Amino acid sequence: MSTPNAAVTEAAASITPAQGKLGVMIPGMGAVATTLIAGVEAIRRGLALPIGSTSQMGTIRLGKRTEARSPLIKDFVPLASLDDLVFTGWDIFGGNLYDAAKTAQVLDNDQLQQIRPFLESIEPLPAAFNQHYVKRLEGKTVKTGKNKCDLANQIRNDIAEFKTRTDRQVMIWCGSTEIYMEQAPVHQTLAAFEKGLVEDDPAITPSMLYAWAALKEGIPFANGAPNLTVDIPALQELSKKMNAPICGKDFKTGQTFIKTVLAPAFKVRNLGVAGWYSTNILGNRDGEVLDDPESFKTKEVSKLGVLEHIFQPELHPELYKDLYHKVRINYYPPRGDNKEGWDNIDIFGWLGYPMQLKVDFLCRDSILAAPLALDLILFMDLAARTPSLRGLGIQEWLSFYFKDPDSAPGVYPEHDLFIQNMKLKNTLRHIMGESLITHLGLDYYGE
């Protein structure tokens, strides 16, 4: 193996080491959160492998193909060790995480019994919740306060207590999908937002209370749901001010993951798409919440934007201008967490002749989401320790994980999974002082 050059050594030295305990705070400790936490503990005990986690099982090529340098990502960048993760969070249903995992019915009983004492040792805190924003759920353990500012400061107090037990912290929203919201005047500046907290502005949602509290404490925030949360100017301003990274929203798990694989293939082969019909059936709490039209609209908007950005119909009108894209989500209790995503795609090729592709993805929603959440926790913590990343606010290089990535104002987001993967790995190369990979490859064929 070649000796690291001076640039590599200097870049690596600028990143604060991952020493001590990394505290993971999760609003919404249901199916995804319990699957994540139970999985991390099972992996720590050697009972399972972190399958699906890019940070744990992915490799990264460094230098030329002929150099044969492709270490594991976790051996290349200074990520927190899984042994150093400590979990806490908030939930509206009470009980410990073993109870929550049993209710979620994602993991089998034998697996849960192996780590039962660990799960029983974690009991979520009462949550900031308002049924106006999630119609189908009723809270049992809910914070009360005189206004939203009071509730947000109660969250900050919870964070302050957790800080006494951990060295660094990350917050990741794994709660339910809130009703559809559009940006309002209260979202435009930090001053307006903080005034709105005191005035109980209805455009400030519970997820925004958590995001504000985390960012005020200098803690990175990631959003696993499609809610309007940190993708508003006020919280983006706070993110930069506090050097607390933020990223996109809505974990890219099942159907949209497949869309961001197939759509780029049609585009690069210049095949037209006349229609793309997508339907989902799922029966977990997510399905119940999305059975409400207002919450469904939030998810629908998140899922619909993918094809528009990938196909760029304004640049390819003959192929995609008349694309009909329909998304449906159906609550079907017998299916539980085992979601079915079914797609019918009408494409056309040479001389306009039609063809069809049908995809039926029988997936496990939380099994797909848990490794994404783990990667985001570790990479957001890395961003917070990296001088060239922490002050940026939006971490666009983490678009890989989201249905609805955030990007700088005036810059369209990348949805193509393969471009996103390149962006992620090139960012890791960049912060470590390694050369970026362009795949040009001409230098292999020179004299």
TrEMBL record:
Myo-inositol-1-phosphate synthase GAPDH-like domain mapped to chain residues: 254-366
Gene Ontology biological process terms, A to Z: inositol biosynthetic process; phospholipid biosynthetic process
Gene Ontology terms, MF aspect: inositol-3-phosphate synthase activity
Protein family per UniProt: Belongs to the myo-inositol 1-phosphate synthase family.
PANTHER family on file: MYO-INOSITOL-1 PHOSPHATE SYNTHASE
UniProt protein name: Myo-inositol-1-phosphate synthase
Species this chain originates from: Edaphobacter modestus
Organism placement in taxonomy: Bacteria, Pseudomonadati, Acidobacteriota, Terriglobia, Terriglobales
